[in-house]
Each structure stands twice: as C-alpha cells, then as structure tokens.
Amino acid sequence: MRDMIEDTRLRQVAEKVEAGVPVSTDDALYMLETGSIVDLGTIANYMREKLHGSRVFYGVNMNLNYTNVCELRCPLCAFSCDAGAQNAYVMRIDQVSEKVAAAVAMGIDEVHIVGGLNPELKIDYFEEMLRAIKKADPNLHIVAFTAVEYDYFARLNNIPIEEVFTRLIDAGLGALPGGGAEIFEPTVRSKIAPKKIPGSRWLEVMEIAHSLGLKTNATMLFNHLETSHHIVDHLSQVRNTQDKTGGFKTFVPLPFHEENTEIHAKNRSLTGYDIIRIYSTSRIFLHNVPHLKALWMYLGEKMAQVLLNFGVDDIGATYHYEKVVHAAGARTADYGSEDHLVRLIKNAGMTPVRTTAAYTPIRREES
Fold it and tell me: Edge to edge, what strands does the sheet with 141-144 contain?
C-alpha cells in the first residue's frame, strides 16, 4: 500500500499503518490539512478493508426522542425548549408503545433513544419505557441515552450512576449512543454547550458503562468553532480511553448544522475535501475503534456514499421519526428506506450488511 502513496509525509503514515504502529498527533494534524486526498483515502481505505473487507453496515431502526424539554438549552441545539413552551412535549408510555409498535410493523430491529434533561422524568419513567419497548418486540435492540443523560439521571434521582446503568440494563438496555461528546476542548465547549458536563466527565461515564459490559459509540461534532488542534485532541482522548476499556465500537463524526441554532461559525465553509479529511483521519488515527460511521442523514446520501471509499464502513440506518438534526436545519429526509440504503452501498461497489449497534448480521428478506 505504501508504494501507492506519492506524498512523502503520508507515505510515512502508510508505513506506520502497515506496521501496526499508531500514528501520532502530528500525523493527524498533517492529514487534516493535506491536499493529497487520494493518498489519504488510500490509507484509510486500506484500514477499512483490513477490518471489514467489502462489507458496509446499515440498520433498520427508529428514533425515539421522548421529550424536547431540557434544562441545558445549549446554543448548539435547535431541538430543545423550556418547560411550558408552546412546542414542549413529553411522550407518555402508551405513546411510546404505540409508536414502537408501528415501527415494528415496518420491520425495525433497533430503537435509538435520546431526549432532553427534563426534571419531571424520574428513573422509573425510563425503566417503564424500556420494558414497554421490549414488550412490543423482545428482539429489539435498544440503544438508549447519552452519557449526558446518564449523569443527569444519577444526580436527579440521587443514586450512583452504576445503579442507573444496572436498572436500565435489567429493563432492556443494550448499548449507548455517542451523543453529547460534541468537542472536548473546554474553551470551545463552554461556548457551544456551556451547561453540559465536561468532556472529562463524558469519558468517565463511558468508562463506567464499558466496565459494566455496555458497548458504546463516540461522536465528535465538527464545523462550528473548533480548530484542527481541537479535533486531534478529541480523537486522542477517545483513543486513550479505548486503550483502557475497549468499549467503543463505533466513532461517529457529525457535521454541525447551524441554521436554527444560536451558533454561527463565521467565515466557515465546509467543503467535501474537509469532510473527507476528517473521516479519513479519524479512521487512520483511531486504529483501535473497529467501526467508522457516516450518518447519511447528517451528510447527505451522496457524501455518505463517497466516504465509503475513505475509511467508512457504516452508513447509518433508516432513523424513522428523527427530530434532532432536522430541528437544526438538516434538509435530508427524516427516514430512509432499507432498499435505498442497500442501493447506495451496492452502487459504491460494496456488500451491504444489515445489522444493529451490536454489529451482528441480520438476514435481509429480499423483496
């Protein structure tokens, strides 16, 4: 592979990758700013093929955003609102059951749950919610609540966070999404999400989840106020935590949608090259995280498809009923059909594999 690389510095990176040596933070900075996109993609694609061959994973799932009432009211968020606002809502358990049952009839395998930090919702509400989902279909894989939510549940209910996890595992919890990570660097974080737990606490909550046998995602929000140095710092902290726990199964870079938020990144124009550099660098730097996901709903289906040649092995899922990114201004559809996702993957010359966050293949019924 290294013989295919023309850029001298990237050839050195390729040599490390072939030797199984983790690349450095200086390497990552160079990759984030290089113009040698083809060389960068060659290295990232080498890693993807080494890990997954031609397989690309996708899911058939639904989103459940149980409330938009949130104490944090982060400037980066267009979804949340104050209690008593005209658009405020909280889903009753019977509404959860009805919505999940309708999605089960569509053939979903997984439920993805995130919501606001609402002081009216105690731990028993979430236990009842997960049990209702499992009652609708015991085989559903539940990926629920961010590290930010778990920290809040523990504080609100005055119980150890380990108890929060064990109670929700008993109710049906299967894995954690990676939301709430945003960017770890404190100065930027204080501007985009000033009341959110620090990045160090986010990582601590994930370490606790990993110690209890839960696998999780890790995310990174980019294209707001961050610099390349902040991105590399974020990747480094994820990699260091993974060295300790091995609990991150997927890394998910998320492009920031600012349209309906209070954050306006002046003089920032995100190009396709920028996106390619971030995903490729993530794949190469995070050698110890097995999967790299490009959410078609955030990126658009064409860019997500392109990224399959730049290290990405997971294109996301159908995401019926998604609200958060669309509140921020995303113009993609709020769900995708399984057939459409399969076509995207096949048209990229790769093999689609239906799965859940557990990455256990699920047989697809051909129509």
Answer: 61-64, 110-113, 141-144
